[in-house]
Amino acid sequence: MKSWSWEGHQIGWSVLGSTEQPLAVLLIHGFGANTEHWRFNQPVLAEQTTCYAIDLLGFGRSDQPRARLKDEPVEPNAVHYGFDLWGQQVVDFCRDVIQKPVLLVGNSIGGVVALRAAQLLSETCRGVVLIDCAQRLMDDKHLATQPAWMAWLRPLLKNMVRQRWLSTALFRNAARPSVIRSVLKQAYPTGTNIDDALVNLLFQPSQRDGATEAFRGFINLFDDYLAPQLMRDLLIPVDLIWGELDPWEPLPEAKRWEKTLGCVRSLTVIEGAGHCPHDEKPHTTNQALKRVLEELKSRH
Asked: What is the pTM of this model?
C-alpha cells in the first residue's frame, strides 16, 4: 500500500501491472469500503494495463479529518465531505500520480465521484464505468418523487443527523462485525464471497479515531450531485454494470439512464448479483470490465 500527500492529508492507494501501458484504470470504492474491496478485480485488470485503486479521503487508509457541514464555520483541518472534494482528489491523483489517460471505474458513491472527476479531467479521462452507481434517493432533488409525508419528516431528519453525538452513536452501532455481516447479506443476495476477509477489510478502518467523521459528512449530503445531472452533458462514453438484484440502487433506474442519456453506451446486468457485483460475482464483472478496456485501447 502506498501513500500520497494531498491538501495536507495522506491518501492510501495501490497499483498493479506494468506502468508502461498507455492507458490506466483507476478503481474508486463505495461508501465505507476501500482499495481492498477490489481484491478480485485489480489483479485481473492489471494483466491488461496499469490498474490503480485509491482510498477516498475519510476511508480506508486515507486520513479521516473532521467533518464540516456546509453551514458550519470554517475551522482548521476540517473538510466538507462531498463530491466536489472527492472528485478533486481523484483529478489531482490522476494528474500527479497516474499522469496518463485513464478509465475511471466507480462502485456506488464511487460512481458519482468518478463522474464528477470525469467532468473536471476533460480529455484526459477516456471513459467511465459505473458499477451500481449511487442514485442518492435521500437528496432534496428527489423530494418531489417521494411520499408527501417525507416533506414533513425531512426537517426533523436533517436536524437529527447534524448532531455529532447521534451520527457517532449510529456509526458505532453499525461498525461491528456482526452488523457488517448482516448488511453484506443484503448487499450480496447470493451470499458468495461474504468471508472473514471481507468483513475485516470493512471493519478495521471503522475502528480508527476519525472514522465517524466521513459518515457524519456523508449522511448530511442532502444537496449534492446526482449521477444523471453529471452525465447530461458528458462527452465521454459511460458504461453501466449492474447487479440484477441490487436492493439499494434499483436496476430499472439504470435502464432508464441507458435509454435517456446520450453518453451511456452499454448496460451489462450481472445475473443474481446485488450492490457489489465486482466482489460478489467478480468473474462475470471482470469480463465486462475487460470488454470496455479492450474497446478503449483499440480506439486509442
From this structure: 0.94
